[in-house]
């Protein structure tokens, strides 16, 4: 067998591309490439969700932390019942009735006192010119007194009173005295009825004769849709709801334990 020659074949004058490769199109000399520089003081960065980078005001942080703590921690039944509020339609009917019994404003009171004084000066009785007032009662101490004396016909309690200790005893007191009650959203809405910023509780003692039918229907609706509905749930603890990450970890552990048992 003849010996192999040590000479190698000369390389090609240009690199050979892969089979099936296409030539790149010629670049347009009029189009200039301008790569962006995202350094400090250079090009504007693309938009992104910055909610986790925002330094929120203290009141926003506090209310968010409070909400999370209320979900995570176990809440006693006496406090947990304040999350069970009157449904939207019944609440609308209730406030529609309450707005008919709003207390008089300062101007109306001044006008009434002037009419009474004029009547007394003319030798008449002041009852002749001013009819018996039918008003919503407000103020925590006042309403508690009405409930204790069984004079209140309906009590409405705000669900977001802070501190909650102010009204936490009121549902039990109303049940003890046999007074119909409901927990509604919220203290600002109750406050608008009595010309205040907020109100913890409101109470109706009596209504006009033309509203008695509507009031009795409202009481039966509250009894069926609120009192009876949440009778059992008010004995249970609230809270104890974990976040999505904790739930996922627990689910992963549970599946691992089940897999180990099968093996």
Automatic annotation (TrEMBL):
Pfam families tied to this protein: Ribosomal_L7Ae (PF01248)
Record-level GO cellular component terms: cytosolic large ribosomal subunit
Region described as Disordered: spans on this chain: 1-33
The UniProt record lists the keyword Ribonucleoprotein: yes
GO molecular function terms noted in the UniProt entry: RNA binding
Coiled-coil blocks: none
SUPFAM superfamilies for this protein: L30e-like
Domain (Ribosomal protein eL8/eL30/eS12/Gadd45) ranges: 123-214
PROSITE patterns: RIBOSOMAL_L7AE
Gene Ontology BP terms: ribosome biogenesis
Keyword Membrane: no
Keywords carried by this UniProt record: Ribonucleoprotein, Ribosomal protein
Function: Component of the ribosome.
Family: Belongs to the eukaryotic ribosomal protein eL8 family.
Name the UniProt record assigns to this protein: 60S ribosomal protein L8
Organism name: Aspergillus pseudoviridinutans
């Amino acid at each position: 067998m003849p010996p192999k020659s040590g000479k190698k074949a000369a390389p090609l004058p240009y690199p050979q591309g892969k089979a099936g490769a296409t030539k790149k199109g010629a670049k347009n000399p009029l189009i200039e490439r301008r790569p962006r520089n995202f350094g400090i003081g250079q090009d504007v960065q693309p938009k992104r969700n910055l909610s986790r980078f925002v330094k929120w005001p203290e009141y926003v942080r506090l209310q968010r932390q409070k909400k999370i703590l209320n979900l995570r921690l176990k809440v006693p039944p006496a406090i947990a019942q304040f999350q069970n509020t009157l449904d939207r339609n019944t609440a609308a009917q209730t406030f529609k009735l309450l707005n008919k019994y709003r207390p008089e404003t300062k101007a109306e009171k001044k006008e009434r006192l002037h009419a009474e004084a004029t009547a007394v000066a003319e030798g008449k009785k002041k009852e002749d010119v001013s009819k018996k007032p039918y008003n919503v009662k407000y103020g925590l101490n006042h309403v508690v007194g009405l409930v204790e004396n069984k004079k209140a016909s309906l009590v409405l309690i705000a669900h977001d009173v802070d501190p909650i200790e102010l009204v936490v005893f009121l549902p039990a007191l109303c049940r003890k005295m046999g007074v119909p009650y409901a927990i509604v959203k919220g203290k600002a809405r109750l406050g608008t009825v009595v010309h205040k910023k907020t109100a913890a509780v409101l109470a109706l003692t009596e209504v006009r004769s033309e509203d008695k039918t509507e009031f009795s229907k409202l009481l039966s609706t509250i009894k069926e849709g609120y009192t009876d509905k949440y009778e059992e749930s008010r004995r249970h603890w609230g809270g104890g709801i974990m976040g999505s990450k904790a739930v996922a970890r627990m689910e992963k552990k549970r599946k691992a334990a089940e897999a180990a048992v099968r093996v």
